[in-house]
Amino acid sequence: MDLSGVATPELERLRAVIAARRLGFPLSRLALRGEGLETLEGEAAALNALGREGTLVLLDTLLVERRGGARRPELVWTGPETRWSGARDTAVVLADLFHKATNTVLLAGFAFDHAADVLRPLHEALERGVGCRLYASASVASSFLREHWPFGPPFPECHGFSPERGVFASLHAKCVVVDARWVFVTSANFTDRGQTRNIEVGVLLEDARLAAVLESQFSTGEWFTRVA
Q1: Which of 109, 167, 172, 195 fits a 20 to 30 Å CA distance from 161?
Q2: What domain range is 215 assigned to?
Q3: Which GO molecular function, any one, fits this protein according to its record (predicted)?
């Protein structure tokens, strides 16, 4: 198998659609063609021999090599800042991630409000054809479109977390994965307070391998159920 002649955007697209499970294994020439990846039809058999996880690892390695390695993590902050702070603003980083999304967004959160401000850039991304999977505790996910999505279609897929019977637990994680490439993990809820007023801290990384691992934590969990 030789992918040296395949353009980086095509490798990135292949990585994104496999990670989002829009392309299943075994890959077929017809499915690749349907995703606009005709140049990879001849590699279908070799990729199938690697399987889904092996293909993702291969693509991660190739893309990191082409990009010259991942950029350094960036500190993200909500609240008062020191005079010499080098941190980026939480609300700005979140909006920027949604604005740059071209294929997929994974959003996991505990609390949401002021969606007209906080989530409008996400709705704009969906209008561009970006797919979104949202994860929250079952009660939050079930009411999300009614209570926290004032925009109308297109809608994100909403997945609810339900712990085992007798276990008192909630989905308390707050993170975003964009295009199977950028990872934002934060203490901030997707609320006005979390984005603009509280003291919150997070980190933004460009790391395709970490993105794949984090996405798999949600997409393969039997404790999540699609509710909308």
Answers
A1: 195
A2: 74-226
A3: phosphatidyltransferase activity
Q: Which amino acid is it at 118? A: V
Query: β-pairing, 131-137 with 104-108?
Result: parallel
Residues 134 and 189 in one domain: yes
Nearest to 37 by CA among 85, 81, 103: 103
What is the C-alpha separation between 107 and 105, in angstroms, rounded? 6
Q: Which phi-psi region, left, alpha or beta, contains residue 58 (left: φ > 0; alpha: ψ -120 to 50)?
A: alpha
Nearest 5 degrees, angle CA 12-CA 15-CA 17?
A: 110
pLDDT of 175: 98
Instruction: Report which of 61, 58, 51 is spatially closest to residue 24, judged by C-alpha positions.
Output: 51
Same domain assignment for residues 148 and 218: yes
At 5-60, the pLDDT tens digits run 787 778 888 998 898 888 899 999 998 989 888 888 888 889 989 998 889 888 88
48, 67, 86: which is the final residue of a domain? 67
Are 61 and 81 part of one and the same domain? no
pTM, to two decimals = 0.68
Residue 220 domain-assigned (yes or no): yes
Length of the chain counted residue by residue: 228
> Residue 215: CB partners within 8 Å, gap ≥ 6?
19, 20, 106, 177, 180
Look at residue 2 and tell me if it is in a domain. no
In terms of domains, do 41 and 80 share one?
Answer: no
